[in-house]
Amino acid sequence: MVIQQPSNQIKLTNVSLVRLKKGKKRFEIACYKNKVLEWRSGIETDLDNVLQIPNVFLNVSKGQTAPSAELAKAFGKDASTDDIILEILRKGEMQVGEKERSAQLERVHNEVVSIVASKLVDPRTKRVYTSGMIDKALDMLSSMAHQNPSSQPPQNSNSNNPSTTGTPATNEPGESKPRPTATWTGVSTTKSAKSQALDAMRALIAHQPIPVARARMRLRITCSTNVLKQAVKAPKAPAGGKDKDKDTEAGGGDEAEQKAPGTVKDKILSFVEQVESQDVVGSEWEVVGFVEPGAFKGLSDFVGGETRGQGRVEVLDMAVIQED
């Protein structure tokens, strides 16, 4: 005897639900796993590869489709089924299984570790660390943060190395308020991998579970020779005490400004950690060298402001590392 199966029955397997509450009703669509995120990020553009069935449901598990009257009431009479599906895809909340959530978390974690490993180096050798070493260092920070949130991870003995840059745990001289200390508690699926990688680098640099520093940038700075020997005006001294002001008045108004730190050329070279080449071509002076990423903005601002358009900074390499 042949058992007849309902011809209109659709079994939804390997399903990922996207839900959107509109008005007083909750609407659902059935999608393939992993495809919703790809569609939202622009990787996937074909809805046929995203939707398991191009219908809007009130309850996918029960196979209860949404009546046209309910859809018109919630989304408007002029809204087509495709428009409604697109709105649910864009704004809806995605429900995923535990396995998919774990896989997504692992993908983000691996991407964060990969980014960090390509941007940080050993300050002594300028060589990059392996992804495994970066992973262990981040795991150390995460464990410390979860075990005792109020305590700070122990800093490596090389944390005072002048080659390292980052958010220090202690105050700089003259600062009245303590700086916030970077912490790391692990990856999340709610933030981009790039953003989390920056947080991870700040935490590693601040706490130094292993000696790390940002890989230096390789820059080309060009400037007109006309402005190279001009003196750099130092910022005015803060009006901290009356006695200083009196001394300044007695000495003359020109002394209201502190002693100039040097020429434009001297100031530019003070940003460069290591000069690779330096030359004068025609009426332009050119220097190629390595700069710490944290000094890049200050250098760019100085060249742009002090030279009045007669100088420029070009990035030749975002992260220079020592190859084995």
Give an overview of the whole structure:
Its main location: cytoplasm. One of its GO terms (biological process) is cytosolic ribosome assembly. Residues 110-215 form the Ribosome maturation protein SDO1/SBDS central domain. The protein has 324 residues and is α+β, with helices and mostly antiparallel strands. The chain has three domains: 15-95, Hypothetical 12.0 Kda Protein In Nam8-gar1 Intergenic Region, Chain: A, CATH 3.30.1250; 98-168 and 183-214, Arc Repressor Mutant, subunit A; 216-235 and 257-320, Alpha-Beta Plaits (2-Layer Sandwich), CATH 3.30.70.240. The chain is built from ten helices and eleven strands. The protein has helices spanning 35-41, 68-75, 81-91, 98-119, 131-147, 193-207, 225-228, 242-251, 264-271, 296-306, and strands at residues 15-22, 25-32, 57-59, 64-65, 93-95, 120-121, 213-214, 216-224, 274-281, 284-291, 311-320. The strands form four sheets. The chain has a four-stranded antiparallel sheet. A three-stranded antiparallel sheet has the order 2-1-5. Strand 1 (15-22) and strand 2 form a beta hairpin. The longest helix has 22 residues, at 98-119. The radius of gyration is 30 Å and the shape is elongated. The termini are far apart. Mean pLDDT is 77; it is low at 151-180 and 241-260.
- Structural class comes to alpha+beta
Number of domains: 3
Q: Report the sheet-strand fraction.
A: 15-25%
Unreliable spans: 151-180, 241-260
Measured between the Cα atoms of the first and last residue, the distance is: 73 Å
Mean pLDDT, all residues: 77
Radius of gyration: 30 Å
Order of helices and strands: EEHEEHHEHEHHEEHHHEEHE
Principal-axis shape equals: elongated
Helix content: 25-40%
CATH C-level name of the largest domain? Mainly Alpha
In the CATH hierarchy, what is the architecture of the largest domain at level 2? Orthogonal Bundle
Largest sheet: 4 strands, antiparallel
Number of helices: 10
In CATH, the homologous superfamily of the largest domain goes by the name SBDS protein C-terminal domain, subdomain 1
Strand neighbour order, sheet with most strands: 9-10-8-11
* CATH fold-level topology of the largest domain: Arc Repressor Mutant, subunit A
